[in-house]
Amino acid sequence: METKSIMIVGVGGQGTLLASRLLGSVLTNEGYDVKVSEVHGMSQRGGSVVTYVKYGDEVSSPIIEKGEADYILSFEQLEAARWLPFLKIGGKMIVNTQQMDPMPVVMGKAQYPAGVIDALQKAGADVTAVDALSLAVQAGSAKAANVVLMGVLAAKTDIGFDTWMQAVEQTVPPKFLDLNRKAFELGYQYQ
């Protein structure tokens, strides 16, 4: 199998690291060679966080260059725009519609740009926009938006639902398992 690349991008505190562990678990369980690299920036201060995941028969490096990502899973709209150049032609982007104000917006020195998802589509990206926050609340907690997004990604892969659910069970602490199962299912069923 040729090597595939997935980027998970967001802002510190959104659960991107749990999402990358879940993805890594699924791919390892499927028998792929998997390489993961996490870049944290100022993640504890609401800064950009990106995880590179590459998988295939044999993977030498986790680093994804511009124009190489088969999928970009974005937990926040501006992060989707920031990382768009890394999406390959024909790649797919899953974008949470949530907006998290960067520091210049918080300080009143700038405004959050309008129409980010439309701009991504006009740039040629195949975008699935998801209100993951609402689906997570429906599942029982806003904190499960990351697992909702993983469900949306899972439905776009050729890896079976049961394999994904097994990885959720391996990755999520037992006391949050029912909530995360529901969140994953809501994401998986999203059109």
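(the above was protein one; protein two follows)
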Amino acid sequence: MTVKTKNIMIVGVGGQGTLLASKLLGKILLMKGYDIKVSEVHGMSQRGGSVVTYVRYGEKVYSPIIDKGEADIILSFELLEAARWIEYLKTDGIIITNTQQTNPMPVITGAAEYPENLTDKIAAAGARAICFDALSLAEEAGSSKAVNLVLLGKLSNSFDFTEEEWMKAIEVSVPEKFLEINKKAFLLGKNA
């Protein structure tokens, strides 16, 4: 039986931990024997700009790029980024987003306003949307920087991998001094 290629986009703002999330997801997919391609696209990531990572996996994957309408899942670290990339989601796709709002530079400088009712707009786009406050759960785990593991925990519900397999991937991807916080954040997200 052939395994159909699946497409996941991880979107956020520079400094939120999107790259660790994609690395960890790639690690568990490799551990499970999938062929995987990962492509990171940075847009001024060092200055809080938009960051997107494409993760494609299956029996044999030839390209890391995901086109509009091809993403099975979008994992978003921030509401505006979720809205920005929603057109890449398949009709029956899932978008998992943190409800946190991070003001982009035009909003900070007063040149623009942060859009209102983004969760409603995301839902109106026809997406199966899972919107929740990942930041509060990360803080409960012990660090506001663990939002990425909270979101991965929620994403893990879309796979049939065991909790032990996820924990092993976390152990080989996260420095030991942050391990317990990250494991706790993952479990809080998984069970949210």
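Reviewer note on protein two: Residues 6-190 form a domain with the Pyruvate-ferredoxin Oxidoreductase; domain 3 fold (CATH 3.40.920.10).
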